[in-house]
Design brief:
By secondary structure, the chain is mainly β. The protein has one helix and 57 strands.
Length: 547
Amino acid sequence: MTMHRAIRRHYGALFRAIATVALLVVSLAQCGDNTAVTVDVATLEVTPATAIVQGGGTLTLGVRARDASGSPIAAPVLRWSTSDNTIATVSAAGVITAAAPGTARIAVSSMGKSAIATIIVAPRPVASLLITPSQTSVLVSRTTQLSAQTLDATGTLLTGRTITWSSSDVTVARVDGAGIVTGVAPGAATIIATSEGRSAQSAVTVTLPPVQSITISPTRDTLAVTGGRQFTAVVRSAEGTVLTGRTIAWSSTNVAVAIVSATGAVTALTPGTATITATSEGRSASATLVVLARLASAVIVTPGVASLIAGTTLALATQITDDAGNVLSGRPVTFSSEAPAVASVSTAGVVTALTPGTTRIVVSSEGKTGFSTIQVVPVPVATLELTPTTAALLIGETVPLAATTRSLTGAVLTGRIIEWRTGAPNVATVSSSGAVTAIAPGTAIILATVEGVSATASISVRQPPVTSVVITPPTGDITVGQQLQLTATPRGTGGTILTNRVITWSSSNEQVAFVSSTGLAVGVRAGTAILTATSEGVSASITITVR
């Protein structure tokens, strides 16, 4: 019985398992193609694991997914991501697009498994350079700017690339690292821009700066017959730069009077006037040449020395002589002052004195000079006025005296030094600026002197008046025969104590109390008396009681 139950349990379980399998088969058959079986991904591999892609390029990554048995899994569900989409992006199909130079990590994952591909984005190589301008010209010592652009194979502009510059002939043109070309000498040179093995060229022609102006020296000259003079000419560019090595042509408008060589050497032939001209590249300058039978040897100026008061004038006389001392008339003369602020001179030789000082008047004729030394002195002081001419001061007070100097015409003269003196320094003093200070009662005469001219002012000094008298002690109480010393103090305005003043004493009743001239009070008999001290009409009193 026990064995029968065991057999029945065994086969019952078997039958139930078979039935379950059969039911599953039927269910799968009913579902047909609409049901998929999900298989777990055990490993995931991306290829290539490392790749270099040029900027702008693309790359499709491959992925192999396997199950636990190592069998490939077809069409697994994949998720893609990038560590830096500014460097490289990835599509849902695993297509990498290179954006900018750098390194990005591309991750792919499926069912908890993942793989990483390292993508290095390399800069696009330079395929060509574009240099502008392709040809240009520049003057010697001037500069011009060239620019170069780097392009890829598609003609797209590439930025941030290093460009080096060079010149085929640095004796003609130099170029710096910024493409600035400097003209060195006339000629032609090729400027080359190079980047990553690619290059472009610009043809540069260097020429000399044109002559803009020409100056000739001297601009005017005088020669005797058979005499000679070397003239010079300087040519300059528009900026004023001196240009060397230029051809200069010389000519004379009157070859009968003077001729000029190819180097500017002039020879005087006969008396007259000729214009000497220097020409270079269409620019010219001229000088006037006067040829005389005899030349000036000396210029005599009269007077040779003179002293003028400022504001006055003096006409100079001139005389031109030759080697033999003969006077030459009609010769041109020029006048100039070495110190025009001191004295000026007109074209006619009239000197005007302006400010004190010394100058020389230079007189020139035909290369010879003479001189007249002019000393300009100030306009002399004719009168001196003091204001005020009288003043009354109290001791300690100060009054300023003003001094006015005038010329003979009455014009006020400034800048003169005044000397001040006091006739009674114990009464009043005077400073160098004319400030008078009262010292003691009396009268002082203040004397001002300038350039020998004097003026005076009378200063009277008196003591400050007494405005009050103070007696101490303010009261008195004495016995018959007793003495009491009283003191009277005169005071001025503001209570200032005044010294050396006369004080008189008096008693209203000398039968009761007597007071001496020094303020000593004496009791005579019992009673009351008023004692008074007076100074300059101002009094004070106290009451004395005698017991």
